[in-house]
From TrEMBL:
Pfam families: Rhodanese (PF00581). PROSITE patterns: RHODANESE_3. InterPro entries: GlpE_sulfurtransferase, Rhodanese-like_dom, Rhodanese-like_dom_sf. It comes from the Bacteria. This is Rhodanese-related sulfurtransferase. GO terms for molecular function: transferase activity. Residues 32-121 form the Rhodanese domain. Keywords: Transferase. It comes from Christiangramia echinicola.
Length: 148
């Protein structure tokens, strides 16, 4: 079994599939065209280490839907976390609140970094660091400097 199959089976185990996936390649194109609202569903300490440029930190444990009150319910939204489990939960909350175009980033920030797409730190500077969440989940992060 290759790594992609393993990630797919892991996501099938933990996710319901209620939120459609988008690929890191699709998100990168949307990001470059300013066509998407990117939400980071990781905790603040993870976001500070690195995040996708332009992402809005919404967190997971303390997620508050009101942070998105100023956005159109039709706006395309891509939610991500480390690999795509927490982000599905946030995506479901968004859809229940009336957002119509919500997608989950397949493989999360780990897959983004594995494809060598750029990340920024809390100051907005380019970084190679990624918060690896935990030793057991870090095996999905193949590139970048793992931070715990």
């Amino acid at each position: 079994m290759n790594a992609q199959d393993s990630l797919e089976s892991l996501l099938k185990k933990y996710n319901s599939g209620k939120i459609s996936y988008t690929s890191v390649e699709e998100l990168r194109m949307d990001q470059l065209n300013n066509g998407v609202l990117i939400l980071d569903a990781r905790e603040p300490e993870e976001f500070k280490v690195s995040h996708i440029e332009g992402a809005l930190e919404v967190g997971f444990n303390d997620f508050d839907i009101s942070i998105l009150d100023s956005f159109s319910r039709e706006k395309k939204i891509v939610v991500y976390c480390s690999i795509g489990i927490r982000s599905e939960n946030i995506g479901i909350k968004l859809e229940k609140s009336g957002f119509e175009n919500v997608e989950n980033l397949y493989g999360g920030i780990f897959e983004w970094k594995n494809k060598d797409y750029p990340l920024v730190d809390e100051k907005g500077d380019a970084t190679n660091k990624v918060h690896a969440f935990s030793k057991s989940w870090s095996k999905w992060l193949k590139k970048g400097e793992k931070i715990y």
